[in-house]
Amino acid sequence: MAEQKTYHEEVEYYYQSSQKDYEIIWGAKKHGSFHYGFWEKGIKLHNEAINNTTEKVAQNADLKTGMQVADLGCGIGGPAMYLAKKYAIKVDGVSITRKQIAQANKDASDRGLADNAKFYAEDYCHTSLESTAYNVVYGIESYCHAQDKLDVLKESARLLKSNGKLVVLDFFWKGTEKNEKDKVAMKNWAKSWAVSDFAYEKEFEEKLEQAGFKNIKKQVVTKNVEPSIKRLYYIFIPSVAIDWVLRIIGKRKGKHENMWSAYYQYQCWKRGLWNYCIYTADKEPT
User: What's the confidence (pLDDT) of residue 18?
Assistant: First the structure.
């Protein structure tokens, strides 16, 4: 009998096994990002929308030259390198997926950004990063992976300087489910992404306060990611076909549910069960 994976192992396996999907379907080789695109006036292309999501971190954090920034759940480092180069800041990225971190550090070196963008294979709830060293901590669609969101929020607070800024872009339960089918649908979506569970908006706000944050602000921007929601849904059938081909040629083995997330996220959105939100908060002065 195969040994049961821990939750962290499940998350790492998910990202290692699904990276090819992100490269083929989401264009991750170009922009180095796995997140949804942020669509607004002037944005016409998928890649532009992807980078515009990263721009929302810069805008909400009011990034300035020379700032120290931490990216918790950095993936293959696309957003961190984008921000480090454009805003002349230093970014430390953390991901539990060792393969991602190796790729991110190589890419940063190849692009001449090794001094400004550094990446570490660690649990973002318990990092080795220096306390009170960062002006900004952010997570793009990564805090959802914390089994207890309070853990990653406490770690974020530990890393931030007094009055430092937290910026989180992520998916949240709205609390509008009407029956057990709605709950099962959200749970299926979470499982397909190796997410223990998404947080309810109110619950997340309460945990922000518990972690020591003030001036908590929420922007509901679900409409701005609708094209990404639909794009994923429209490529659901092709993604299943790609999965089948990869298995036939021996490039993929074992359990893999990522392609079903394209279906689940759309169905849950159509039912009005989730929001895409940008949360900002300031660390309480110490």
Answer: 84
Per domain, the residue ranges of the chain are: 7-177+196-231+274-283
193: number of Cβ within 10 Å: 21
DSSP state of 32: -
DSSP per residue over 121-134, as a string? ES-TTS--SPTT-E
Instruction: Please name the residues in contact with 153: beta carbons below 8 A apart, sequence gap of 6 or more.
Output: 143, 166, 207, 208, 210, 211, 213
Q: Which residues pair with 90 in a beta bridge?
A: 68
* Contact between 96 and 124 (Cβ < 8 Å): yes
Grouping H, G, I as helix, E, B as strand and the rest as coil, residue 240 is helix
Q: Quick count: other Cβ atoms within 10 Å of Cβ 120? A: 17
**Which positions of the chain have pLDDT values less than 50?**
1
Closest to 137 (Cα-Cα) out of 14, 29, 281: 281
- 124 neighbors 72 (Cβ within 8 angstroms): yes
pLDDT at 254: 57
Contact 164, 137 (CB under 8 A): yes
| CATH match of 7-177+196-231+274-283 with 3.40.50.150 | yes
Tokens found for residue 151:
């853990």
The residue type found at 119 is: F
Cα–Cα distance between 181 and 122 in angstroms, integer?
Answer: 36
Is the dihedral angle over the CA atoms 210, 212, 216, 220 positive or is it negative? negative
> Other CB atoms closer than 10 Å to residue 119's CB: what's the count?
27
The burial of 115, by beta-carbon neighbours within 10 Å (0-12 exposed, 13-18 middle, 19 or more buried), is given as exposed
Three-state DSSP at 120 gives strand
